Input
Amino acid sequence: MTLQHLTHCIAQGEGPLLEFKQRVPAPERMAKEITAFANTQGGQVLIGVSDDGTTTGVKDAAEEEYALLRALEKYADPPVVLKTTRIRISRKRDIILVTVLESPDKPHYVKDPDTSRRTAYIRVEDKSVEASREARTLMRHDVSEWDILFRIGEKERILLRYLVRCGRITVAQFARLAGISKSEASKTLVHLTRARMLCHHADLREDYFTQGAELLAT
Output
């Protein structure tokens, strides 16, 4: 990446595919940002850039890269593949460009070394947020495997009629509407998403579902 390209990227601001860090933060937090990109569409982290886009750079790029790799080694499960590139902005300072591709091994989790707790994160707008149960389930299935059979019962008809009227629905809304548990509602929505009848949308407040390609084509 050239300095001109770097300046252009920074001018766009943080977003779904770009995060700024003045330095490598606390290891668990760094692992959260990196795994969120790997679990979503991939993205880039610029280390040496403050939240407002100021390019401060880092004095010791090797030390920052070491801290990054140690954070992932300790907290990311399974490991995340990434690439780091140094961009010299002055005689003594560099920006570190960390490039993360969408992973074929997702979901990646941030693990707590002291407990058995593991948390998966995804990228939504300019934030890394905890992935919902539905998002985690859908991550485990490759799109090429999404040719499945399903049966349209009463709860599915209720769901589809509601989507025609309102456009979107959450797990909690579907559970109340169909008089079923949230667990059953979740499974039904995921199943229909895998069948391309629905489309899943991650959201900062609550995930929701809309009509998918198969419905829109009919």
DSSP finds eight helices and ten strands in the chain. The first helix runs from residue 3 to 12.
